[in-house]
Amino acid sequence: GEITLRGKVLPVGGIKDKVLAAFRGGITEVILPKENEKDLEEIPAEVRDAMEVHLVESMDEVLRLALDGSLTPLPQNAKFAEASEPPVGPDTLAH
Question: To the nearest whole number, what is the mean pLDDT of the chain?
């Protein structure tokens, strides 16, 4: 992501692909910029329903979520290499 010098969290591109990769890797919670909320509509409903999305506007919110212990720990069997593979299927757009 990107932040300003004052700690404002800015929107980023590729939210659908990033969230789908996280889901395939076994991640169940993500922190996203509030300004990317509209991009959640592009994510299949079954993925949205299975994940907890935290929308934030400032680094204070990010740090609070990351450091207070409320985020779900990563699973021991998280498959990061597999999750980073490009998605394949009828919903996949060519780049």
Answer: 86
Q: pTM of the full predicted structure? A: 0.73
Task: Specify if 26 maps to a domain.
Answer: yes
Answer whether residue 43 is part of any domain: yes
Alpha-carbon span 71 to 65, nearest angstrom: 7
**How many domains, the chain?**
1
Residues contacting 4, CB < 8 A, separation 6+: 10
Among candidate residues 44, 40, 42, the one with its CA nearest the CA of residue 30: 40
H/E element, 80: helix 80-83
33 CB neighbour count, 10 Å cutoff = 20
